[in-house]
Every structure is written in structure tokens, then in C-alpha cells.
Amino acid sequence: MTTTGRPTTDPELIRAWICAERRALADFLDDLPDSDWSRQSLCAEWTVHEVLAHITTSTRDSLRATVVGIVRARFDWNRMTADQASALAARLTPAELIAQLRDTADAHRRAPGAGVVDPLVDIIVHGQDIARPLGRSLRPPPERVIAALDQVLGSRFYGARQRVGGMRLRATDADWTHGAGAEEIRGPVIDLLLMATGRPPAGTARMEGTA
User: Fold this and answer.
1) What distance in Å separates the CA atoms of residue 127 and residue 203, rounded to the nearest whole number?
2) Are 48 and 36 in contact (CB under 8 A)?
3) Taking CA 188 as the corner, what is the angle to CA 182 and CA 193, rounded to the nearest 5 degrees?
4) Pairing of β 208-210 and β 3-4
5) Residue 158 needs a FRET pair 20 to 30 A away by CA distance; which of 99, 120, 122, 149 works?
6) What is the mean pLDDT of residues 95-110?
7) Beta strands in 50-124 (DSSP E)
8) Strand ranges inside 56-211, DSSP E
9) Secondary structure element (H or E) that encloses residue 192, with its range
């Protein structure tokens, strides 16, 4: 397995990108009409409002709150995040959550076991979870998406090895390839990232496979 395109590993640069992406998403969400907040996102069983609530938990919750949450969820991480998102969305309006996202954009908290790049994956992917079902365009710079994609492909947490193992991925909007399989999947890096994290091709996705 090989990856071409030099991955970015500078922690300060990654943190600056995370902050910029959070603020960009807050600006994007400012314009959503009320009717969009109850729409289904790309995350199963989460509305757009609940995805935003989930995003803000990563910038505001302390380690203690995370430990308490995981114990209450009987050590089921997915259940804990779902419960937290639903409860927070029920308590706070979209405008309040947007303000929190903007105010805590430079927070450096990470979930237990998460690396420096994982919050970048989180904000980029969840931004697409919101934008694409609404038919809206949210396009992070390719270099940021590549850093997130390299993290996803190199981690066991996201399940990307099961989804794209044995394939060759080739970006059509950047000098980036990954893998050496007989089957090649081509597309913009943001579409490759969504595929690697288990999202279906949707919206502006243009994928093609060749044997």
C-alpha cells in the first residue's frame, strides 16, 4: 500500500486548519433557513440540528463529561455520542450552537485516544453530512481534506481498510493517490474521504471505477 502526496504532520498547522474549518462551518450555517434544521443528515438517525450539536460537544465537553457519558452509555461510544447530540439539540437552539462553535473554534480538546488530525476529520466530514443532503456546496481546501483522508486511511478507528482495502484511490483535483489495487476509484478528494468514512456518493460526487 502506498500513498503519494506528502502528508501534513505539523501540529500547529493542523490546529489552525481545524479552527478555520469550524469557523467556516459556522458561517455556512448562519444562512440555513429554519426548515433545514430538521432535515435528515448523512448520519443515520441524526438531523442537521443534531449533527451540529455533536460537533459542539467536541469543543466544549471536558474529559470528565466524556467519562461520565461513556459510563452512562454502558461503554458504548456510538450510543454515548448519539445520546449527547440528541440531548444538546433538545436544549439549545441552532443559533446558540452556532455561537458555541464559533466561540470555541480554537479549542484543542480531543476525545480519549484521538490524534491531532482526528478533529480535522470530524469537522470536515460532519460539515459534508450537513451540506450534501441540503444540496449545498461546502468545499474545504484539498490540502486539508488530504490530511484528513490520510488519517482515515491509516487508522483502524474509521473502518476504511474494510471499505477500500485492495483498491487504488486517485484524486482528480489534487496530486494524490493511495493503494496499489487492480480496481481504481477516482474522484475529488472530498468524495474519496466520504467514501472512506462510509458515506454514500451523493450530491456532487462523481466516482468511477476501473478494473
Assistant:
1) 13
2) yes
3) 80
4) unpaired
5) 99
6) 92
7) none
8) 167-171, 177-178, 183-187, 208-210
9) helix 189-196
